[in-house]
Design goal:
- The complex is a heterotrimer of chains A (287), B (342) and C (255).
- Chain A has 287 residues and is mostly helical.
- Chain A has a single domain, classed as ABC transporter involved in vitamin B12 uptake, BtuC.
- Chain A is built from eleven helices and two strands, in the order ααααββααααααα.
- Chain A has a two-stranded antiparallel ribbon.
- In chain C, α5 crosses α6.
- The chains are: A mainly alpha (287), B mainly alpha (342), C alpha/beta (255).
- Chains in contact: A-B, B-C.
- The structure holds adenosine-5'-diphosphate (ADP) and magnesium ion (MG).
Chain lengths: 287, 342, 255
């Protein structure tokens, strides 16, 4: 029974991280129709920035997280301005290739400075809570609470602020949004900024119980794509629900089926789902 | 002046000259290593030609291409090392395997449009990598496959030597290019290009999307399998890293630099970049610092690469030389060739 | 020629086309008008097989084509143009058109491998057809130009030529005159008359009322997916429901 609860805990942790990453990806897709293959690289840069700020600059975990979120947000905005904006009228294959270009560049740069080695990042939350036999490391609890807070904060931002409302409006109807005079450039930059910050925070939350290395974004971005396809590309609740589905599938699959193949579960799921429903699980109407 | 040089490049003679150069290259090379590098570049070029079919002509960004390359290599490797096949039957086996798997993956993945297809194939590529890495009973996992057979020369040549192997690869490259040139000019090639212009439009022209896309995909995976099998026969030791996504990204870069959807672009891009990375040793590890921004700059400013931009330029020039009224009959050589090469 | 019965298309909860029945006669210009979002393009998509109808039937020359896939309907003689046509910009006009006749050919991979006689003959036929279509739309002089280098109006004509190269019986033209100036619009109208003279049937979606009134033999008016009127240009322009739809609607469709 406890082992079962333990897996639920693991599923929640994984699902929270995946959900945060997928959230950024789905926002960008919803607004700009760009599948940002570089999103995993932003996540990776986020982890390295926090690592750098903590180890080399020596700031506290929370400040490192904030600093990293700001840096990656700016980086994402630069990508939007320099790369995706000029490509907005190009054939769809071009922005995907450009995103791959960004991904390759960021990984190579990080590898040049930090090497390809695996690193460990510390966190002040090293304690372990024991609830009557159910063991919960503090960092995991932090991940879940952090993700919940961010999702709630994002919801408030999107629903209650003017900027948020314009983002929603544009996600729902791009042409219409142009007609009513929404500043599309500003919305695009905002969206990229938010998605970058989310990726950096997710990476900083997860890094202490995982490893930091230049290729760390690969698996995460692929899973995030699986998640937003599951949840419907562009859908915010879909990203969260999809994140949880994949998180739980991995936690339980890894435990009850096979650890070696746990990473394949998400992709297997994707193949099965897309084979049956080419437009995704929860997607409305035609693709 | 420039135009004359350009016109010269478009002549059939230019192709012959290039082939002649390739034939004497082993004698010009400073050492065996250079011949080896050239053979490797040819192998990659074959794979890039495959990618060009589905991505360049048909317009579907296939991110599993490196995975199919690895499947070709592993099929040949495992059949010869573990199952006692000799090289040539295993070689055919590798082609059949990549074609069949290409068909199966194609039937599922090509129902998906644009982004979905790219993401799906990205995942397929990763599944291939994971299987090669984890399915130890079959693939030996991370240890990889050793003792792969070299091509059997029927007692005439010894393909374990670099130079004979170089000629073998060159032969396959010429064959691969010959087929592509025929394909690209044919109605079938035009059908693929029509699909790239848009599914909707192609369907309205009575083109069966699924059948043509699957055909293009199978052709492209077979090319990848061919390249992979040759690669396994050359290095004779392979591991799961052959399926690393970075190989796919490399090939996309070669394709874009040379010219996506063009006839000579894949060759030029591959040879150029392989030699540049070879000669600048420090680039070997950090090539992506250059490749990454290069990709971005290319898709923004020169989406059709070196060859595509060149053809566009020469076409404009040749049109400008002809007075307005006579353009209809302007079948001057460059135009004609450009038309065929584009 | 084309007979549509109780055709309905739902997108989720939205009826983009709702219970439309209409008959289009051969060798006539049949126009479809209506405000933006009225379901006109969807109606074309249904006829061409790009969307499956939710219910209803479509008869082409008496043959039920309701559930046929797009490419087969094209082969039965339904050609179409789109509101926007993506062509291969860095290729010549002629090169873009050759594939138009592909549906009447049968060469496959094997023919390409051996460069069969059939392939050669078919390629010649496609090239001829492309030239013929280009000549029909009056663009022979730009055959060697890149698509990227021709004007907006020439592009529209190339799109017509591409549809014509499929050897259609009936042509579905979706807002062909959008974005071209008045004289050019008149030129496109002439082109449609020429198609009629050559025995084709034209179905036309257009917002330019002047053009419609001058050219259409029959007009069907859609609003919110429903057919609210049909008849000759005079009948339709005096129809109360139509006036209501155009004046009462919040769209600028009549512009
Ligand atoms: N593929 C689709 N999925 C969902 N809704 C669609 C789709 N195509 C069209 N619609 C909707 O159907 C309605 C009719 O659209 P359309 O046929 O394009 O109108 P028109 O061509 O008359 O301007 C619109 O409300 C549009 O949003
Ligand atoms: Mg429309």
């Amino acid at each position: 029974m406890n082992l079962f609860l333990q897996q639920i805990m693991n599923g929640l942790t994984l699902g929270s991280i995946y959900g945060l990453v997928a959230l950024g990806l789905t926002l960008v897709y919803g607004i700009l129709h760009i599948p940002n293959f570089a999103h995993g690289a932003l996540y990776m840069v986020g982890a390295f920035m926090s690592y750098f700020l903590m180890v080399d600059v020596g700031v506290h975990y929370w400040f490192a997280m904030a600093g990293s979120a700001a840096i990656v947000a700016v980086l994402a905005i630069i990508c939007e301005r320099l790369v995706f904006h000029p490509l907005r009228h190009s054939p769809p294959i071009h922005d995907k290739i450009a995103a791959i270009g960004i991904l390759l560049f960021l990984e190579a740069v990080v590898q040049m400075f930090w090497g390809a080695d695996f690193r460990r990042m510390s966190s002040p939350f090293t304690g372990i809570l024991n609830f009557d036999g159910l063991i919960i490391p503090e960092q995991r609890l932090l991940i879940i609470i952090g993700a919940l807070t961010l999702v709630a904060g994002l919801q408030i931002f999107l629903r209650k602020t003017m900027t948020g409302a314009t983002i929603i409006a544009m996600a729902q109807n791009r042409e219409g949004a142009f007609l009513v005079g929404i500043d599309a450039n500003r919305v695009a930059m905002m969206t990229f900024g938010i998605s970058g910050a989310l990726a950096a925070i997710a990476a900083t939350l997860y890094a202490p119980i995982n490893l930091v290395y230049p290729a760390m974004g690969h698996l995460v971005i692929m899973k995030a794509f699986v998640i937003i396809i599951l949840g419907g590309m562009g859908s915010i609740p879909g990203a969260i629900v999809g994140g949880m589905i994949i998180g739980f599938a991995e936690a339980f699959g890894g435990f009850y089926i096979s650890t070696a193949y746990k990473d394949i579960i998400a992709f297997g799921l994707l193949v099965v789902i897309l084979s049956i429903r080419p437009q995704g699980l929860f997607a409305k109407g035609a693709h | 002046m420039l135009l004359k040089i350009a016109a010269l490049l478009m002549k059939p003679g230019a192709k012959m000259a290039m082939l002649a150069f390739a034939l004497v290259f082993p004698f010009l090379a400073a050492n065996e290593y250079q011949v080896y590098v050239m053979a490797t570049a040819f192998i990659w070029a074959i794979a890039v030609y495959g990618l060009n079919i589905i991505t360049g002509y048909c317009g579907q960004l296939n991110l599993a291409h490196g995975g199919f390359f690895a499947i070709g290599a592993y099929t040949l490797g495992l059949l010869t090392a573990d199952y006692g096949w000799s090289f040539w039957p295993a070689f055919v086996g590798a082609l059949v395997m990549t074609a069949v798997l290409g068909f199966l993956v194609g039937v599922v993945s090509l129902r998906l449009k644009e982004h979905y297809f790219a993401i799906f194939t990205l995942c397929v590529g990763f599944i291939i990598y994971l299987l090669l890495d984890k399915w130890e009973e079959l693939t030996h996992g991370a240890i990889g496959v050793r003792d792969i057979a070299a091509p059997y020369g029927f007692g005439l040549v010894d393909f374990t030597d670099t130079t004979p192997f170089y000629y073998l690869v060159l032969g396959f490259l010429v064959l691969a290019m010959w087929f592509i040139s025929r394909l690209s000019k044919s109605l079938l090639g035009r059908t693929f290009i029509a699909i790239r212009n848009g599914d909707e439009l192609a369907e309205s022209l009575g083109i069966n999307l699924m059948r043509n896309k699957v055909l293009a995909f199978v052709l492209s995976t077979t090319y990848a399998g061919l390249a992979g099998a040759l690669y396994a026969g050359m290095v004779r030791f392979i591991g799961p890293e052959e399926a690393n996504i970075n190989h796919t990204f490399d090939m996309i870069t070669y394709l874009l630099v040379g010219g996506i959807g063009t006839l000579s672009g894949p060759l030029l891009g591959t040879l150029g970049l392989v030699w540049i990375t070879q000669s600048l040793q420090f680039l070997e590890e950090y090539r992506m610092i250059i490749f990454g921004p290069l990709l971005v700059v290319l898709v923004i400013f020169f989406p059709r690469g070196i060859v595509g931009s060149f053809l566009t330029w020469i076409h404009r020039k040749s049109q400008a030389l002809v007075p307005e009224g006579k353009r209809k009959d302007s079948k001057v050589t460059p135009t004609k060739e450009a038309e065929n090469n584009a | 020629m084309l007979k549509v019965d109780n055709l309905t298309k739902m997108f989720g909860g939205l009826a983009a086309v709702s219970n439309v029945s209409v008959e289009f006669e051969a060798n006539k210009v049949n126009a479809i008008i209506g405000p933006n979002g009225a379901g006109k393009s969807t109606f074309f998509n249904l006829i061409a097989g790009a969307h499956k109808p939710t219910s209803g039937t479509i008869l082409l020359d008496g043959k039920d084509v309701t559930n046929l896939p797009c490419d087969q309907i094209a082969r039965l003689g339904v050609g179409r143009t789109f509101q926007t046509t993506n062509l291969f910009e860095q290729a010549t006009v002629l090169d873009n058109l050759i594939v138009g006749h592909r549906l009447r050919t049968r060469s496959g991979l094997w023919d390409v491998l051996v460069n069969s006689r059939r392939l050669q003959a078919e390629e010649r036929a496609c090239r001829e057809k492309a030239r013929e279509a280009l000549d029909f739309v009056g663009l022979s002089h730009v055959e060697n130009r890149f698509i990227a280098d021709i004007t907006q109006e020439e592009r529209k004509r190339v799109a017509f030529a591409l549809a014509l190269a499929t050897d259609p019986k009936i042509l579905l033209l979706d807002e062909p005159a959008a974005g071209v100036n008045p004289e050019e619009t008149e030129g496109l109208a002439d082109l449609m008359r020429k198609m009629i003279n050559h025995g084709l049937t034209v179905c036309l979606i257009e917002h330019k009322m002047g053009m419609i009134m001058g050219i259409a033999d029959k007009i069907m008016v859609l609003d919110h997916g429903e057919k609210i009127a049909e008849g000759t240009p005079e009948q339709v322009s005096n129809d109360a429901a139509v006036i209501e739809a155009y004046l009462g609607g919040d769209e600028d469709a009549a512009a």
